[in-house]
Amino acid sequence: MTPAEWPPILVVLIAGALPTAVWRWLGVALADHVSEDSEILVWVRCVATALVAAVIAKLIVFPDGALADVPMIVRFLAIAVGYGAFFLAKQNVLAGVLTAQGILIAGILLTPLFNGG
To answer: To 10 degrees, the CA torsion angle through 98, 101, 107, 110?
Structure first.
């Protein structure tokens, strides 16, 4: 990469990092002044949780890329079994994620067998 190619890349990096950094700096500056149980912080946590849930739901119901080739029943089965493993392992996130991934991988590998391939 030549120095002449740096400016566009720097613009993209700055434009991508600056908006995030501003909110992080603001969070650090206000962290001592906001109660953990304040209504605004509870609201922010609820909105953040809702956004994560919406993104996960979109990825499952309307996937892009390779996940689109996986049957929906396999995707929902992976969620259900992963959710069950999460609770059976005393709310261990790693156990739930690894179990769901295992079901998803098994479903991907076994799908051609059920489709006559």
So the answer is: -70
Reference 107, options 83, 74, 61; nearest CA is: 74
Counting Cα atoms < 13 Å in the Cβ hemisphere of 59 gives 10
Helices marked H in the chain: 6-30, 39-61, 72-88, 93-114
Instruction: Give pLDDT < 70 ranges for the chain.
Output: 1, 3, 116-117
**18 CB neighbour count, 10 Å cutoff:** 9
95: exposed, middle or buried (Cβ count in 10 Å: 0-12, 13-18, 19+): middle
pLDDT in tens, 70-94: 999 999 999 999 999 999 999 999 9
- Is the Cα dihedral 16, 22, 25, 26 positive or negative? negative
